């Protein structure tokens, strides 16, 4: 039993067990973490994802991107979150999931929910807001989300809806994931392949444009 315990705590099995209570097959709720946050539902379309899109390709101008260009340039948060703070919740309508967003992307934060990369802007602000999560806990079904699907970020300072524009699969050390963007963008990242045993060598990236802000 002692040998098993040492093995279990040193493998991904322990991480999975901790994340099990954050994510269930049907849905996830952030209500226990932040009762004041209001859940928003949204209908989404389901176009096919394009994993090999060129990250430098020009943005296709659509009605949604035209609307995004007219959104306020910046959302002013009254205070900056501290590492480990609950920032809000990430709602993924395609998965019927609601996940707590924790400021920071170290293991302590990722064990509690989706991590917000501290050097990126806050959700709703212009530029690139980056979220990350474990593929075997909170983001274990993220591969079902593709181009045209939506993310909704609820915070105490507003509700921000993003639509996925691009799906990318990149190497683990690809720094283009966190580069600045010319408009309000949400970049959601997790390890890839999803069924890889051990430390996955790639990242599954969803790039989404802000389409509405309340």
From TrEMBL:
Q: Name one GO molecular function term.
A: hydrolase activity
Keywords recorded for this protein, A-Z: Hydrolase
This protein's record includes keyword Cell inner membrane: no
Its taxonomic placement starts with:
Bacteria, Bacillati, Bacillota, Bacilli, Bacillales
Q: Which InterPro entries match?
A: Sortase, Sortase_D, Sortase_D_1, Sortase_dom-sf
Q: Where is the active site?
A: 134 (proton donor/acceptor), 191 (acyl-thioester intermediate)
Q: Name one Pfam family in it.
A: Sortase
This one is known as Sortase A
**Organism of origin:** Planococcus citreus
Q: Which domain of life is it from?
A: Bacteria
Q: Is RNA-binding there in the keyword field?
A: no
Q: Where is this region: Disordered?
A: 42-71
SUPFAM superfamilies, per the entry: Sortase
